Amino acid sequence: MKWLLLGAIALYLFGGHKRPLFCAALATELAYLALRGSALGRLPLIGPHDTLVFFSASIALMALPFCFSPILRDSGRFSWGTGFLAGLFALLALPFPSFNMPLPPILRTFWFELHVALAFFGYALFGIGALLGAMFLSGRERSTLDLQYRAALVGYSFFSASMVSGGIWGYYAWGTYWLWTPKELWTSILWLFYSLWLHLRLKGTGWDRAVAWGGIIGFAVTLFTYLGVSMLMKSSHSF
Amino acid sequence: MFRSIYDRLASLTFGLWLIGGVLVLLAVGSFAGGGEGEGNINNMALFRWLMETPVAVSWWLWATIALLALLALNTVLCSVESLRIKYQRGNFLVLIAPQVIHLGFLLIVLAHLFSAWGGYKQVMAVPVGGVIGFPDGSRVQVGNIAATMSPMGFPTEFSAEVRYLGDGGEGVKTIRPNEPFFYQGVGLYLKEVALEPYRAALIEIHQEPGAGVALVGALLFTIGNVVLLAVRRGK
User: A167 vs B214: CB contact, 8 Å cut-off?
Assistant: First the structure.
C-alpha cells in the first residue's frame, strides 16, 4: 500500500506545478488513505504517520478551490507551493510506523473523528494562507491578500468547529470540555492568534504587509501546535 | 476624561494588545507545564487550585484571567459601538454576525468562570455491589462489570451497570467510555475496570456547571461564523 503514498509524494514534489498532476497526486493519496481506513475500519487519524498523511491530503484538498480560482488559475507558483507542502508532510510521514492496533475505547466516537478531521482542515487552510501571504510579499498583488483572508477565515471556522466538537467529546469522555494541558493551551493560542489576525485586517490597507506576515507566523504557530507540542512538550493530550 | 477612557477601552487596538497579551501568557504557562504538573490543576475547580497554589507558580494564570476580564469588557464595548455606528446602514446580517460571534465568545468565558468556581471532581474505585451515596439520600449501586481484552492484554471494550435508587424511582443504566450517566446534576464516568482480584470500576464523578453555557456559547459562535462566511462569500 505504501507505494501509493510514494507515488503521491513524487507527483506532488515533481509535478505539483501542473494542475492535472497535482490532482492525480491528491487522488493517489486519498486512495492510500481510503485503503488504510478500510483496513483499519475507521478514519486513519492516530499517530504521526496517519495524521501527517491526513494533513498532507487536507492541504491538497483545501487548495483545490484556490487552484481553480480566477486569480490563481494561471499561477503555477501556487499549485507548486501547495504541492511542495503536501509532498513535504507526506514525506515526513514515511519514517513513522503506522499505528494498526485497535483504538482505545475513549477514542471510538464520532466526536473524536470530527474533532481531528476539522482541525486538520483548519491547519491546511492556515498553510494555504501562509503560502498566499508569501506570494503577496513577493508580488504585491492585493488579490492574493484577499484570498489569504478567505483561506484563513474558512480555516478559522473549521478550527473553531473542531474546538467545539473537541469540547463536546471531552465532556462525554472526561466530564469536562476543558483540561489544562500544553496541547489545549496551544490550541487556544492558535485560535486566539487567528482571532487577532482577523481583527488586525480591520486596521486598514496600511497593515497589509503585517497581515501577510501574520498569516505566515500563524502557520508556524499551527505547526508548533500540531507537531511541536506532541514531540517537544510533556502533555497528556497529544497526536 | 471618561470619554477618553471609554474610547480606549472600546478600541480595536486595545483589543489586539489584550489578545496578544493573553497569547504570550498562555505560551509561558504551557512551558510551565500548563499547570498539569502543579498540584493537579485538572483535579479540582480552577479557583480552588489558584487559592492553594503559590503565586510564583500560578502568576501566569492570574494575569491571563485579568487580561481576559479586560478583553471581555473590550468585546462588549466594541460590539456596542459597532451596533451604534453601523445601525441602519448596510446589511443586517453583516452587522449582526460578528456580534453573535462576540456573544458566543463571552458566553464561553462565562462558562469557564462557572466551572472554575463550582466545578467538582472525585475519583473512586467501586467494587460490584458497591454504592455511591448522594446528599439527598439517593444511591447509585454498581452492578455487573464487563470487559473484553485484546490479545495484547489491554481492554478494547468495558462497561459497568449502575442501578440508581432514590425517591424519584429506580432504574438501571450501562456506562462505558464516552457514555456517562448523568444523575443528580453530576456525571458518572467509567474510566477503567479491574477484573482481578475482584471486579471493580474506577468511576469519576464530575460536576461541570459551565457546560450548558459553554455549549450555547459554542453554538452561537458557530452560527455567527457560518453566517459571516455566507455573507462574505465572493467578497
Answer: yes
Task: Quote the DSSP letter at residue B155.
Answer: E
Does B226 contact chain A (CB < 8 Å)? yes
Nearest CA in chain A to B222: A161
Q: Measure B23 CA to nearest chain A CA, in Å.
A: 5
CB contact under 8 A, A185 and B232: no
Question: pLDDT at position B15, please?
Answer: 96
Q: CB distance from B69 to chain A under 8 Å?
A: no
ipTM of the complex: 0.90
Q: How far apart are CA B85 and CA B136, in angstroms?
A: 53
What residues does each domain of chain B span?
1-78, 90-119+208-235, 123-203
CB of B225 within 8 Å of a chain A CB? The answer is yes
Residue B37: its pLDDT value, please? 59
3-state secondary structure of A237: coil
Q: Do A181 and B34 touch (CB under 8 A)?
A: yes
CB contact set of A204 (below 8 Å; sequence gap of 6+): none
Residue of B94 and B35 predicted with greater confidence: B94
Please give the pLDDT value at position B232: 77
User: What is the CB neighbour count within 10 angstroms for residue A83?
Assistant: 28
Of A160, A200, A235, the CB nearest to B16: A200
Is the CB of B83 inside 8 Å of chain A's CB atoms? no
Name residues whose C-beta falls within 8 Å of residue B56's C-beta, 6 or more positions apart in sequence.
none
- The chain B residue lying nearest A183, using CA atoms, is B30
Poorest-pLDDT segment among A21-35, B32-46, B140-154: B32-46
Helices A208-223, A110-139: axis angle to 10 degrees equals 140
Question: Which of A110, A174, A184 to mutate against chain B (most B CBs within 10 Å)?
Answer: A174
Domain range summary for chain A, segments of one domain joined by +: 1-103, 105-239
Residue A6 has pLDDT above 90, yes or no: yes
Which residue in the block uniquely carries the three cell numbers 470487559?
Answer: B147
pLDDT of residue B153: 75
Confidence band for A238, pLDDT divided at 50, 70 and 90: low
B217 touches chain A (CB under 8 A): no
- Do A127 and A59 meet the contact criterion of CB atoms below 8 Å apart? yes
Is the minimum CB–CB distance between B224 and chain A shorter than 8 Å?
no
Nearest CB to B35 within list A180, A189, A199 = A180
Is the four-CA dihedral A142, A89, A43, A32 of positive or negative sign? positive
Backbone φ and ψ of B210, nearest 5°: -90, -5
Judge contact between A158 and A125, C-beta under 8 A: yes
Task: Determine the Cα–Cα distance for residues B204 and B207; give it in Å rounded to an integer.
Answer: 10
CA distance A149 to A64: 16
